Amino acid sequence: MIKEASANARKTHYTEILNKYGMLLILILLFSALSLKIDGFASFRNIFSILEQVSMFGIIAIGVTFAIVTGGIDLSSGAVVALASVVGASIVTGTEGYGMTIFAFGAAMFVGSICGLINGSITAYGRIPPFIATLGMMTMARGVAQLVSNGRPIDASSDAFTSIGDGSIFGVPGLVVIYVLVAITCHIMMSRMSFGRHVFAIGGNVNTAKICGVNVEITLLKVYILAGALAGLAGAMLTSRAYAGNPTFGNMWELDAIAAAVIGGTSLAGGVGSVPMCIVGALIIGVMNKGLNMLGVDPYWQQIIKGMIIIGAVLLDAQKRKKA
């Protein structure tokens, strides 16, 4: 009896570890397999290339993770990237100096915050499901981006501005440094601050959260403002990297962001998620994209594979909740 109980305890312990760190193991195995298959895949140059690609939609994924943990969703992040991109480019075009660069990044984040404020207001006070609210914002933000830019790319080749996308700090690309700083800040917000506890409480049970004194409306407002600001930051980063703002930027990025969150273990039912595992999910997507590109896999097949991975991650989450 004692032996059986001990064996069951060990099994439960191993299962918990696998549930918690399984995706990290998958990331390591995926990277190792592609490194064996593709020459130069494990080189520092290629690793930094992956991290640069991940940094932009990865920042969006962090904001989306907060929204999903509350039991919501944000489908507007890709379109907000496009809007922030053309706004930032409009500010720096024909200018020089880091003052305008900082202003452009701030303006991009402000525009994203306004979009998030509208999403949060409609969701929290209008009682409209976040799927519908953010779907509407996705359409509007993309339309405004087209109007601002007249449907054309806007030059953003200011040396100061593009140095953010091209530059590095101690050999680490500037975009990766921004991603790391944002990830650390948001991890602290989610895991160490009352704001994070309120986010989890709302996702766990919104009625219980209200009884416990959580201001649900204000918390949701903050969550969507944060998600919008991060999408705006990603738009400025992409513009800096591409030397131009473009109303077509960020197309389908919201799905990559949601995929990164879900693959990283964030439950679509709400109440479960973390920033570090969201990063792992983003890295899995980034490593997979880079590997498939280097292997010459057709882009259409890449979309099919990514869709299958998302469905698999959601099914896995459903099974976990059934056992809980």
UniProtKB/TrEMBL annotation:
CDD domains associated with the record: TM_PBP1_transp_AraH_like (cd06579)
Keyword Repeat: no
Domain of life: Bacteria
The keyword Membrane belongs to this UniProt entry's keyword annotation: yes
InterPro entries recorded: ABC_transp_permease
Membrane topology summary: Multi-pass membrane protein
Extent of the signal sequence: none
Keywords: Cell membrane, Membrane, Transmembrane, Transmembrane helix
Record-stated family: Belongs to the binding-protein-dependent transport system permease family. AraH/RbsC subfamily.
Protein's name in the database: ABC transporter permease
Organism the protein comes from: Marinomonas colpomeniae
Lineage start: Bacteria, Pseudomonadati, Pseudomonadota, Gammaproteobacteria, Oceanospirillales
